[in-house]
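Section: Multi-chain targets

For targets with more than one molecule, the full set of components is provided together so that the structure can be written out for the assembly as a whole rather than chain by chain. Components appear in the order listed by the source. The example entry contains two components.
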Amino acid sequence: MVDIAFKNLLARKTRSILCILAVVVSVYLNGTTATMNNRMYDMMTSELAKYMGTIYVQQAGSSYPPFESSVAQATAEDILSRNDLGLNLAESTPLIFVRTERGMMPFMSARAMVIGVPIGREPVLLGNVDAVEGVSRFPGEQTTNVTILGDQAAKYYNVAVGRDITINGKTLRVIGVLQRSSMESVNISTIMPLITAQRLFGKDGVVSAVLLTASDVIQVSDIAATLRQEYPVLEVTTQDDMLEEAQNVMHMPLLYMSMMSVTAFVVAVAVIMSTMIMAVTERTREIGTLRAIGASKRHILNTLLAEALILSLVGGIPGALLSVPMAAMMQSRLPTPIQLIQIVVFALVAALIGVLYPAWQATRVEPMEALRYE
Amino acid sequence: MTPIVETHELWKIYSMDGIGIEALRGVNLTVESGELVACMGPSGSGKSTLLHLIGAMDTPTRGEVYLQGHSLAKMSDAERTCLRRGNVGFVFQTFNLLPTLSALENVEIALRLARISAPLRRQQAAELLERVGLSERMRHIPSQLSGGERQRVAIARAMANQPALLLADEPTGNLDTTTGEVIIALLRQVNSQGQTVLLVTHNPEIANQADRVVQMQDGQIQREYFPKPNTAT
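Its structure, encoded as tokens over all components, is:
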């Protein structure tokens, strides 16, 4: 029956092509939302990994990265001078975060940002992230007009070590490009000395946050509780808090993505259903003839099912493949073969649901319909 | 020997806007194997309705239809479908070929429904089209064929599964006189090879080419006669 199904679809080329196009778009949308979910999930997990054993102190009500946060540098230094809290002060530092390029959509993270870190405290921020080119540390207290670029930032500015870039009107010499990090915020950052960032963005005497490292991971909760009590105007964030906040922040985008996915599915079902309803309505006499010459209801059902599945496959496979360049463009994980198959299965399920009603209509056609027009 | 077709007190009443219309009123008919029977009558006389009931395409309001001794009333929808597929061949007034399929594929479809293997059904379909004189037109789709050619394809399709009974509903109704004669000649030819044929027509000239004519009027058989010399009843 597949060959007959093909011929029926070819006989109505325009309608079939339009239906296939709609399926391509629906499947592509579904694949893209899956890619975006991947990306958001990756970003969340990579960022959270950074917070193991650490505490962020920032202005109350600000989110992460704390672009809107402003903490007096004196307060930051006060916290960083506390020996009584169980902090590893050598692994703690004040930081400045400035967003220089917003994400494509409001709920997306920044595309480029600046992190200011005191000279000599770069390892606190970067951990074991090395440079692929140049250095991953500032050369010394006297050299402030320098910057180290994250992996993505180097691509974003299209510069290499030894070249200059201009940030907010100030020219900085690129002294290093970092290898790709699990921390997305580092990847997209232009990292510069804290004092340079403060001058560039008019933040003299303030920082965005204080990154604290506990001497012992199990002390994190106690340290956070003490800080909250002693600095009530500041927000003290641990990994657990970050997870909760990340989940809160991600809730709406994920819901939005899910809605897009559901909408794409409903569109695919509706398009396939309307195409098949038209096919059944137009071919009532043909179906009646087939019934009259001995086609069972199952034969009729199989033919329609084959038509719907062909439409969904011909639309679904390119739609799924189109989501691959989209993922590459978003620098997200490429969909795995299993995910691609799932996306095609999405189209097949849409076809199966879409064909249910027209197929039921078709099986109700009586042989007498063949003679209805005589 | 069991007749191919037997009807007992066959009634068909259609309901139209709550009003019952009696299309058949107690029809008793017997068709023996190998006969060519013409059912003749004016429009609305019930001849097509009778054909549809005999062909298991419709169900009677009352009465019984026996096909090769089997009561259609006791059959399920699936059984009647199976019967139409294997035991009855239909030739329609408007040919009813599938427009997207070639002549060969249109004949093949009947064999495909009967689960004949692809190479065999292709061969059989080709042979059938050759029998009806369309060996040169096998690859053409219906819109590329003349009316007479389409009806010959329809006859080949109806013959595909070697049915016990060939039913033809006004097979020349959409054809000019000359082409109609060709089609009737073809039906006579298949009948001469042993095929039982029951055809419906309102044309006395066509009916008179049958072995027996059943004349209907107002849903009843008015009379039966044998049009060949010295056989009138």
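Chain A touches chain B through 24 residues (CB under 8 Å).
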